[in-house]
Write a structure and sequence with these properties.
This protein is mainly alpha-helical and 262 residues long. It is built from six helices and two strands. Helix 1 packs antiparallel against helix 3, helix 1 packs antiparallel against helix 6 and helix 4 packs antiparallel against helix 6.
């Protein structure tokens, strides 16, 4: 005869303290796992933010050089206008045609710095701005970025004026071959004259000089000068100031995170 053994099934429940301890252990395990994942994600995002700031730092240094170079060249354009304006007022301009050619070649150049927005756009689009733990730095990044559109609008304003008012004079009143040469030469101002390092052709003149309206010509260049000075004062110089301040903030932030690469 077979003997059947029935398993012993406890018919009493666990003490409530055991349930509490098990529940507490599960809660602690889940909380620690969630916290560890958050810490890991925060570290990764902060690292991405630092890399983005490093890229921004490179762009800012390039921008800073462009602003300084542009302002220097634009100031020289202004000086060239002052020379021919002086010659016009002194009624000597027709005797100083080489200076007119040199001045016009420089004044008609399009020189306006354009902000490099690649790193700025990447910071904003990737959400890296949210992981920069410095409110002053974040605010300055946003403020500097907003200046890009202003520079582009001023570029359109200036270049459009040159297209409409200056270029037609260039193509119709200046001898093409010498004008091209002088555009690639170095210029200096001495005793209210503009000196170039290339030989000036004999009897250099303005094409159809007998019909050339000098007063209108100076008015056009004077208007261009006014537009450029407005751009310098209201856009380029303030943007340059922001750029330099932002460089300092970025450098400080990267130093604090041991991530500064010069």
């Amino acid at each position: 005869m077979e003997v059947h053994h029935h398993p012993h099934v406890p018919n009493h429940s666990k003490p409530w303290k055991e349930y509490l301890i098990e529940g507490l252990m599960i809660f602690v395990a889940v909380t620690l796992g969630y916290g560890a994942e958050n810490i890991r994600e925060h570290y990764i995002n902060k690292h991405k933010g630092i890399i983005s700031v490093q890229n921004l730092y490179k762009d800012l240094k390039d921008d800073s050089l462009k602003y300084a170079f542009s302002i220097k060249n634009r100031n020289f354009q202004d000086s060239c206008f002052e020379v021919i304006s002086y010659l016009f007022d002194e009624k000597e301009i027709k005797n100083e045609i080489p200076s007119v050619y040199a001045a016009h070649a420089n004044i008609s150049l399009r020189m306006l710095p354009i902000m490099n927005t690649m790193a700025l756009d990447q910071i904003k689009s990737s959400g890296a701005l949210n992981y920069i733990e410095n409110n002053e730095l974040k605010e300055m990044i946003q403020s500097y970025s907003s200046d890009a559109n202003g520079l582009k609008l001023r570029e359109q304003r200036e270049f459009s004026f040159i297209d409409r008012m200056v270029d037609p004079i260039t193509t119709s009143k200046f001898e093409y071959k010498y004008f091209q040469k002088i555009g690639n030469s170095s210029l200096n101002i001495l005793n209210n004259r503009i000196i170039t390092n290339i030989k000036v052709p004999d009897k250099l003149k303005i094409v159809n000089d007998n019909t050339f309206d000098w007063n209108n010509y100076l008015s056009i260049l004077g208007m261009l000068r006014t537009i450029r000075k407005s751009t310098d004062k209201s856009y380029i110089i303030p943007t340059q100031t922001k750029c330099n301040k932002l460089i300092d903030l970025v450098r400080k932030y990267l130093k604090e995170n041991n991530a500064l690469i010069d």
